[in-house]
Amino acid sequence: MCNFNKQSEDNKALIHLFMTKAAESIGGTNFLLALIEAMRAHKPHPLTYKGCKIESPNATIEWNKIIFKDKFDLLNEIILSHKSSQNPDFNILENDNNKKKKNILNMVKTLAPLEFVVTPKNEADGGGFNFKVFENSDVEYVKMNPIFVSMFFCSAEFSKKALKFEI
User: Are 46 and 39 in contact (CB under 8 A)?
Assistant: First the structure.
C-alpha cells in the first residue's frame, strides 16, 4: 500500500492524478510536500492531535473530529499489516477473529464521517481539496482511501514518486 512501485498501473495513475490536482489546488507541488512534511514532524501522530489542525507555511489541514488513541492504534495496526501489500483494494473487515472484526467495524463507524479539508493560506493559490478516511464504508466491504493513507501513513518519498509518475 505504501510502496509506490508495487502499485498497479491504474492505481499509480489514480494516485498521481489526485496528488497533482491536490498540489495545484493549494499552490503547487512544493506547498503539498511542505504540508506533508509538517504533518510528519508532528509528534505524536498528527491524527491524534486534539487541535484537529496542522499548518505549514503555505497550507492548512483541518478535520472535524478528534481521533482517540484506541481507534488510531487499530487503524495503524491495519495499515501496518497491509503496508507492503500490492493490493490496495483490500477489505479491512476481512478478519478471522470476530472480536477484532467487531472492533474494526466500530472504528469504521466512528471514522466514516471524518473529513479532512486542506486549504492554502493565500486564496490566490487555489481552492484547496478535501478527502475522507474510507472510499467505501459498506457493512460488508470497507476500503481505505489511498489518498488518506498516503497523506498520513506513507513516506514523503511515496508522495514524491506519485507526483513525478508519468502516465
Answer: yes
